[in-house]
Amino acid sequence: MEGPLEAGDASSPDSQGLAADGRLAVGSFRNTQKEEPAPQIQASRPAVRATQGRGLQGGGSLSKKPNSRPEQRAADGSGDCQGSMLGGPPVQSEEPAFSGVENLLCPMSSHLSLTQDDHDYQGGGLVGDPGPGKELPAGLSPLSEMSPKLLEADPSGSSFPKPADCLLAQDLTWELLASGMAALPGTRDAEGRAVLLLCAHSPAWLHPRCNSHELLSLLFYLRGILRSEVQALGLTVLVDARICSPNSSLIWGLSQLQQASPGSVHQVLLVGKMPEEMPTGLQFNQLPSHQSLLAHIPDVGLPTSLGGCLPYSHPAWLDFRMRLETLQQNCQETCALLQGVIDSVRALQQPVESGDTGQLLQQAQSLMRRVLESPQLSWLQNQGSLELARLKQGMPEVTLSPDYRSAVDKADELYGQVDGLLHQLTLQSNQRMQALELLQTLEAQEGGLHQVEVWLQEVGWPGLEEPGEPSLDMLLQAQGPFQELDKVAQEQVKQGEKLLQPLVGWEAAELGPPGKRFLTLRSQLTEFSRALAQRRQRLADAEKLFQFFKQATAWTEEGQRVLTELEQEHPGVVLQRLQLHWTRHPDLPPAHFRKMWALATGLGSEGIRQECRWAWAQCQDTWLALDQKLEAALKPPATNSTATLCVRRAPAVPTIPPLRKAYSFDRNLGHAHHGHCAAVVTDSHRPEAGEGVWPRSSPSVPLSGSSDFRNPNRLQLVLAEMVATEREYVRALDYTMQNYFPELDRPDVPQGLRGQRAHLFGNLEKLRDFHYHFFLRELEACTQHPPRVAYAFLRHRVQFGMYALYSKNKPRSDALMSSYGHTFFKEKQQALGDHLDLASYLLKPIQRMSKYALLLQELARACGGPAQELGALQAAQSLVHFQLRHGNDLLAMDAIQGCDVNLKEQGQLVRQDEFTVRAGRHKSCRRVFLFEELLLFSKPRRGPADGGPWPH
Predict the structure, then answer these.
(1) CA 273, CA 254: separation in Å to the nearest integer?
(2) Interval 365-383: pLDDT, tens
(3) What is the 3-state secondary structure (H, E, C) of 325-357?
(4) In the predicted model, what is the mean pLDDT of residues 216-224?
């Protein structure tokens, strides 16, 4: 085993001279095709050239006019290799080897397009003087000295060291470094320590420049390549002394390294002859055989020159280190420059006056030119990504070293830091210059903006002022002048917003005092536009309120005219004229007065609200006068009978207030008043049957010979039952609203019930409002003359149409209750302690209409008075029966399909029913729909039994 270690070979350093050994080796590496095949270089150049067009499009774009907001001017992002987050380090790959073709596009290529595109690739670092006696591999040259501008950049606060802080290859004697006298082949001993290989037979030990300083620098340089955790373990120095024993320079250099940095050398393994002198502080172990060498260093970690399996080429390693350090130093210097410019951009002051904008813009552009003129940045733009790709691709003689991966990762990280700083500088510089250019643009248009500002202060705002509490007449008179002001104001606002549109998204802190003034004007325009719209809506509401007043006044005047004409008329004529009047001029619906009050309240004037109350009072007085006129006309003639009709109420029921009091305007619009009916209806406890029913009293019976043939006892009892059940009905509707409506607002409501309030409850709330505010009080006002109930039904013919819509919606409500409601509302029913579920309460409107029909029928039977009263009761019965039937008619009409006629244009659906068509023994079912303008026949698709549709 001694033979291979002692015998020399053709590759031994002794077989070549010093200069030939160093420079020729480098020269042969420069010409070899194994490291850099021509196709790879040719394939990589287009990738580098392609990436230069991406990202910033050259720093020149920074000096051009920006086209958008800074947030929208961010660079496009990194390329295809090591895609980095903006402002963050690039993501590092886990594979030990890198593909040069796949990794040519790196983060830098998306931003480093700051110089001209006509630079041809030179294949090396920055051009500089290699110094006397130094020759570098092809395409490489030592880094140039830092430019004065770089020295001016203050990297304080930055994590990037200055180039002088690290020992680089350019700081060493080139002949010593290239000779291979000391090398790091990437070997690790059995304990994981790095192995430093020293060749005792290298002629470089006798070189004139191999002095103590240069030798120690070389050893420190090689040790500094290792990671910090590997350095802490100490070096295992392997001395190849097979040809000659180590000279004193070698031993002295190791001793000085150990003294300068204790623990740097853990042990010295000597292959071959022992030195003549043994220094203190170093542990020398002579290895007599190859087997003893393998006990310290595995075979796979030994270079092939020592009989191992590790391929190592010092020229390839040297070429890798020179390229790596060139890229690293360019990155470090560029980072220092970019950080300094970023701090300078941040330190730029905001413009104070209008004239400062141009000067500050020139300062910002000067800072960016400082970046554009950086030779390091230009080199990184043109060659950085290609150099990084070559480093990652590498050769087996280099990539198998454990130190290779950490070195490339560090270079990749530095490259990503340049990318992040450049992106940060791009955003800040773009934002800064866009703000300044925006101010320049606005200052150029300051004349037009000043005109808008003066118009706002002198014309706009004064034109919107109004008295503290204007009347309705004042608001109506202000419409004409406001229309002229509105037209001019919209033009001024449009012009101002167009000029100030570029300010969208900017804040005062970014634009300084001049920008704050423009932003203030923009806020004033926005506030004025809002005030203008409010004024426009206010005058429109005043016009609507005036129309409501006009309708109420017209109805009141017509009623008063009829009352005047009927002063001396016969009761029969009075009844005819009143019926004709109510047909042509029905009572104003409750919604009319609710809308009128809402508009008056929105205008915020007590005088207008007082006018609204006055209009309401006039309508109610006229309604009461008409009702009293009707009552007088229906009153039977006086007789000589001494008998009287005596029906008394229970003491618990208060006396019915006058009709005007019962129709209080504020109460009907939701204000808090405490009438006796409100106390009954708003009680939230569970409705009980029979509450409020008047006690049956024994009235006197008319004497024989009386002209009144009606049964007054029966009439009063039927009316008492109608009023009592009406109170109970209203209480049930209110109970349903108070207890079950809020359940649909719970967060755990089933998905099928969400947004289904209208389908589940229908128009139940409107029914409750109608009966609570109007119908119940009208029934209570009919106690002195029960047959007058019929006119209450006829006057509210339109309101009773809500029951047809409720009936139409009932099947959908039943479906929701069947699918979800019974289970969901069961808990609430149990909490209320109610024996009726929600479905029972939803059925009450349908049951109430049927109850009305029965009660009206009883009234008609008991009524023996004039024919007009009997006719009115029969008409009321017909109204109720029609609404009961009309809901089913609407359901059937909705089932019609395929009809080429718009049924909504054919008037109201009067009747619908089915009939049978016989053709011999065959029978078929058909359905006919009678509209006011159309008679429609339909044929069922699946037959009437299964409730299928009725297509035309």
Answers:
(1) 17
(2) 777 777 777 788 888 878 8
(3) HHHHHHHHHHHHHHHHHHHHHHHCCCCCCCCHH
(4) 87
Q: How far is CA 823 from CA 743, 760, 819, 840, 844, in A?
A: 13, 14, 8, 14, 20
3-state secondary structure of 377: helix
Domain boundaries, the chain: 1-10+187-311, 32-165+312-444, 445-546, 655-890, 895-946
Question: How far is CA 707 from each of CA 19, 572, 643, 712, rounded to the nearest angstrom?
Answer: 152, 17, 12, 13
Task: Note the Cα 29 to chain centre separation in Å.
Answer: 60
CA-CA distance, 890 to 940, in Å (whole number)?
16
CA 605 distance to own-chain centroid: 41
Q: Among 102, 150, 106, 107, which residue's Cα sits nearest to residue 126? A: 150
How far apart, in whole angstroms, are the C-alpha atoms of residue 881 and residue 47? 88
Look up residue 653 and give its amino acid. V
φ and ψ at residue 235, rounded to 5 degrees? -95, 145
Does 534 or 65 have the greater pLDDT score? 534
Higher-scoring residue by pLDDT: 505, 142: 505
392: which residues sit within 8 A by CB, 6+ positions away? Answer: 98, 99, 100, 103, 408, 412
Beta strands in 28-147 (DSSP E): none
Check pLDDT > 70 for residue 861: yes
| pLDDT value at 50 more than 80 | no
DSSP string, 76-115: ----SSS-B-TTSPBPPP--SS--TTTTS--GGGGT---S
At residue 942's C-alpha, the angle toward residues 940 and 945, to 5°, is 90
Would the CA dihedral through 667, 671, 672, 678 be positive or negative? Answer: positive
Query: Which residue in the block uniquely carries the two structure tokens 């009773």?
Result: 800
> What is the CATH superfamily name and number for domain 1-10+187-311?
CRAL-TRIO lipid binding domain (3.40.525.10)
Which amino acid, residue 638?
A
- pLDDT tens-digit series, residues 306-349: 888 888 888 888 888 888 888 888 888 888 888 888 887 776 66
d(CA 328, CA 417): 11
Q: CA 380 to CA 754: how far, in whole Å?
A: 62
SS3 236: strand
From the number of C-beta atoms within 10 Å of its C-beta (0-12, 13-18, 19+), residue 823 rates as exposed
Average confidence (pLDDT) over 105-118: 35
Strand order in the sheet with 935-938: 909-919, 922-931, 935-938
Segment (H or E) for 926: strand 922-931
Q: What's the gap between Cα 74 and its chain centre?
A: 21
Distance between CA atoms of residues 136 and 130, nearest Å: 8
**Can you tell me whether residue 936 is helix, strand or coil?**
strand
Position 510 scores a pLDDT of 54
Identify the bridge partners of residue 922 per DSSP, sorted by sequence position: 919
Encoded tokens for 871? 């006719």
> Which residues make Cβ contacts (< 8 Å) with residue 783, sequence separation at least 6?
656, 716, 719, 723
**Which CATH architecture describes the domain 655-890?**
Up-down Bundle (1.20)
Q: Residue 795: in which H helix or E strand, if any?
A: helix 789-795
List of long-range contacts for 406-413, beta carbons under 8 Å, 24+ apart: 406/227, 407/225, 407/324, 408/98, 408/324, 409/92, 410/328, 411/324, 411/327, 411/328, 411/331, 412/82, 412/90, 412/92, 412/388, 413/89, 413/90, 413/92
Helices (H) and strands (E) in the chain, counts: 39, 8
pLDDT greater than 90 at residue 914: no
Q: What is the C-alpha to C-alpha distance for residues 904 and 552, in angstroms, rounded to an integer?
A: 30
Give the architecture (CATH level 2) of 445-546.
Answer: Up-down Bundle (1.20)
**DSSP H or E run through 913:** strand 909-919
Which range scores top for mean pLDDT: 36-45, 697-706, 848-857?
A: 848-857
Q: Which tokens go with 105?
A: 């596009």
**How many Cβ atoms from other residues are within 10 Å of residue 241's Cβ?**
21
Residues comprising the chain, all counted: 952
Amino acid of residue 85:
M
